Sequence to fold (180 residues):
Amino acid sequence: MFAVIKTGGKQYKVAKGDVLIIEKLDATDGNAVVFDQVLMLGDGDNITVGSPLVDGAQVRAELLETRKGAKIIVFKKKRRKNYRRTHGHRQYETVVRVTDILAKGAKPAAKKAAAKPAPVKKAEAKPAAAKKTPAKKAAAKPAAAKKTPVKKPAAAKKPATAKKAAAKPVAKKAASAKKD
Fold:
């Protein structure tokens, strides 16, 4: 099932479980929000279009958070007049999750209470076999000590003397050529 709602001067197509970012609403985090301006309802092939609103239809949502959106840079300039102004702006926005879409006369589904698991004691958290005894700790240390680091052999360097020897005779020949 889906619905088209109107809020903050905009229209949104929503379904159960959708998370929306809309204009700021005056409510606190965790509260329930009801959108009464439902423009259209759809359930498979059955579509109801309002004129302009669908009578009695509601969309219920849970407000997750109110925050500031992305920064927008406003830059004004008048050429050849030495006028430049830079201004930033962050618009407030609200994040909501759609919980129910109700047609005319429909009642919201009852919330099911989730069964909480029994608290676990610290002694029961780790099984007895997993606990290390002093004998196991002593046995674990020599195994780690047996490993020896493997060193890679250093690459053999070529002697640099061959290049220097070749360079010296060339310099002598050039110097002797200049003398002539």
Remarks:
- The radius of gyration is 38 Å.
- Helices lie at 122-125, 134-146, 161-179.
- The chain has three helices and eight strands.
